[in-house]
Every structure is written in structure tokens, then in C-alpha cells.
Amino acid sequence: QKEVEQDPGPLSVPEGAIVSLNCTYSNSAFQYFMWYRQYSRKGPELLMYTYSSGNKEDGRFTAQVDKSSKYISLFIRDSQPSDSATYLCAMRSISSGSARQLTFGSGTQLTVLP
Amino acid sequence: GAGVSQSPRYKVAKRGQDVALRCDPISGHVSLFWYQQALGQGPEFLTYFQNEAQLDKSGLPSDRFFAERPEGSVSTLKIQRTQQEDSAVYLCASSTSHSNTEAFFGQGTRLTVV
Fold first, then answer.
1. Residue B45: beta bridge partners?
2. Do B40 and A8 lie within an 8 Å CB cutoff?
3. What is the block-wise mean pLDDT of chain B (114 residues), using blocks of 10 residues?
4. Best CA proximity match to A106, nearest among A84, A87, A85
5. CA B6, CA B24: separation in Å to the nearest integer?
6. I need a surface site. Which of A33, B19, B85, B107 has the fewest CB within 10 A?
7. Counts of helices then strands in chain A (DSSP H, E)
8. What DSSP letter does each residue of B2-35 carry, written as one string?
């Protein structure tokens, strides 16, 4: 079983819909949680990161972390066709041995239809 | 430069051939990471440099993989005697801090071994 599980989709929604993307993880040492967006044939682009539990909002994007359930979410409000991409969750611990590497989910492919 | 630059963008190698992939990080970025992304999967950590020191190479899949960053700037990932399972996108990321929570990714090199 992978340390980070993410539903690969594909997920297709109409423009203006609220999108919910989720990941679960098994390593309780993870403390930093990130969401990346990756357009086709491009590198991942950091959208948001959160330390430990809680919510963080940035424009149309909201990230939530529930460490007790080992579950993280990304919500996209008023989705736009330009949001069509693969969304990757990523996380890491703060222990010195593995502090610098990110563990990614497999990505969810999102299509927002005009 | 304005961002992380990787070259070549695409590489086709015959099985058994050696390849070298180049990463030009953002100027002044201390930390540099290499990741491997298989089709439909999230990136997987390969190795990490802080300046010229390779501090973590735990993700390199075999001794055919070798990375260097001799002057603490440009990095090269070398794969010897390529095999079909090496086909993937190789991503480079750089960061200003020891942490890579705000790492910037390049567009990647898509390697196809035939």
C-alpha cells in the first residue's frame, strides 16, 4: 500500500461547480501538506501548503488538513476551464532524515467543461 | 533565469545507451531535487543536493543512476545502460531553503527508452 493514496479520476465537472479533491495517507509523521497543479507536459506548480492541521484559503482555493483522520482536501470554488489539469497532493515529515523529500499522491485529473 | 530550466525536453534512447539530463536551477537556490514521474503517477523522489553536497540519494533506483552538482548550481542526472523501465519524465526542482515546501519545478525531461 502506498503512503499517500489519491483517487486518479478522471473528474469532469461543469464550469462554476465546486470541486473537491482528496488524499489519504498512512504516515503519521507527515506534517507539511501541499497541493500542486500540473498541466499537460508541464512541471508541477505549487498551489498551497499547510503545516499540521487546519484550513487555509487562497482566492478560490481552500486546503483542509485533518490529521486525526489522515485526510487532506482541496476545494476549488467557481471552477473555470483553465483549472483543467492534474492535481497532486504532496506531503513530508519534519524528521531530519527525510525532511527534504516530498511524497506525492498519484494525481487526480480534472476537466472543467465550459 | 526566470525559472528552473531542464534540457533536453525530450530524449529518445536505445536500450543500453547512456543519457545525461541537465537542470539549471533558479539562480541562488541552494537546494536542488530530482524526481522521476512515470506515466499517470505522481513524482517520486530520487536525490537531493544542498549546494554541491549530495545529502540524500536514497531514491535512486539502481547504481545505474548517478547525479552530480559540482559547483552548486547546474546539476546533471546520468543514467547508464538505459532500460525500458527508465522511461519516465525526470523533474528537477530548486528551492531557496533547506525545506522544499516551496520548491519550483522545471518542465521536465521526457525520456523514452526503445
1. B35
2. yes
3. 90 98 94 94 94 92 97 96 98 78 88 98
4. A87
5. 6
6. B85
7. 0, 11
8. -S-EEE-SEEEE-TT--EEEEEEPPTT--EEEEE
